[in-house]
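Tutorial sheet, problem 5. The two components below are modelled jointly, 651 residues in total.
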Amino acid sequence: MKINSTALPLAIDNIDTDQIIPAKFLKQVDKIGYGKNLFYSWRYLQDGNVNPEFILNQPERSSAKIMIAGNNFGCGSSREHAAWAVADYGIEAIISTQFADIFKGNAYNNGILPIELDKQFVDILLQKTMDNAETEVNIDLENQMISCDAINLNQPFDIHPFKKQCLMQGIDETEFLINLKSEILAYETQRGEPV
Amino acid sequence: MGKTLFDKIWDSHVVKNVSEGLDVLFIDQHFLHEVTSPQAFDGLRDRGIGVLMPHRCLATADHNVPTVNQSQPIKDPLSATQVASLKKNCDEFGIELFEIGHENQGIVHIIGPDLGITQPGMTIVCGDSHTSTHGAFGTIAFGIGTSQVEQVLATQSLVLSKPKNMKIEVNGSLPFGTTPKDVILYIISKLGTEGATGHFVEYCGSVFEDMSMEERMTVCNMSIEMGARGGLIGVDQTTVDYVTKRAEIDHEKLSWWKSLNTDYNAFYDKKIAFRAEDIHPMVTTGTAPDTGVRLNQKIGDAPHLSTKSLQYMKFNAEENVSDQVVDYVFIGSCTNGRIEDLRLVANLIRGRKKADGVNAWVVPGSMKVRAQAIEENLDKIFKESGFEFREPGCSACLAMNDDKIPSGSLCVSTSNRNFEGRQGDGARTVLASPLTAAASALTGKITDPTLFLDEN
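Model answer (structure tokens):
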């Protein structure tokens, strides 16, 4: 899995899931079409028109597949709708210094790669991609490397081997668990604690 | 080396170790609601499978339900469809459901404990981040995404990295008028919204030992607001008494419960301690739960306060937080919608009137809480004071129903989040305890509740 793309820099810390997708859009019973409401309150003005100031509305950013955010991205609610919105919009990887745990899990389960890097690297990437919308960032999952020629960045990143395997081979965690059904049933029968 | 309470419960629920730090964890109890479950049920249909252990699942409608005229059809067609989907899915997959109108309907985190379903030593999940509430009983309880809801429906298990252990200790005596909500707002203001990310927090010390179960739930509820996967408290007589009043428990189980405490020589990855005497009634001033200040402080004294959030809140950093004019007061949510919360409010406002221009809503957390409040005549006190006593649901905590705070209005809320737009587009939210919310409704300004409390 390789992602070579321009980036969407969002230099804001603690972007919560209510910002990623507000609660009023959680009323669907399917998983499709959430991308148009990604960052709704920042993306649209109160009269419903697009906010030209917001980065998602800048034409030169429209093909970006990589998002770069401030610290603690995805805090708040467990709503997977946030990950569905990010994926539906076309984002394949998010770079931050730290992700909220539930969002991180939701990202993996929707084929989005969450990459955690030290603040110095995130800050440089944010600055460079903000200054120049054409700056390309390259992510190589197999070799766990992120690079950006414009700033001579070539930096390894961590990922749990199981999560990497799931993303690389398209393994569905639920299918993985379904294959363990007999062990799960045996556990319930055999365990000692009287729950 | 001994074990923490968290490690004891986790280790006893591991079906299988997958690889380094990654386990298949068995889930004892799965709570469901209408917002985060429809796509999970569709997933089961796509796979052509059923729910593995329907007896370990329980569903309720809470996020979308109206809090007035609940017996009437839901007006919003999307909300109505979502609630109807839950009913259809529960019928099809054999899951017990407390739908609108059922005597046990209510907010998912209120009904589990109140009905004796939440019990010590369990692993509990729900597609809702405030599942951490159930940790008050000495459980591992945490919120999950919809893909994981599907996993639990399909296999009653999850593949998870084991979180780290963190201890938060508070000893001493809380100052007069200071409630558990103030304690957790204080802790979050010190740690920040990501201060406990990757950890399960155990709350230790005399302050938590002295709390009732409902008070402990308020604390554990907000663990997620500092990034913790969940929060929990060891089992003691308070826990046992609460559960045995609600469920039949045999001796074997009781003796196991009493072992559900951290060993004296257990290791924590992170430890932090606070003094109860330093904690006072708190309110938030920004757009994240970590912006709490004492009621006599300047708005700008709040930690973690960004210019962006000050602008959104339309606050002047130089002003005192207590001078701010209040438009709405919301008392309810899975943080503070329990009977003890309603009693606190009723006692403070009894014989007094709310200020003109303030809309004050009391929304009980469940039908049972509502019935109890009526039995105790609390509803009359609310009415005489000019407060609206509504029907149960999540209500203005996240405004998925009609209970929205209008743009620009300031709401003192007992809920758990003050994010931008959380209570409605442009709504400004100040998080507070039920006492502070009640006092603010009486004066029309953010108000220190001790002004209305009799120390004797």
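Marking note: Chain B touches chain A through 77 residues (CB under 8 Å). Full credit if you identified this.
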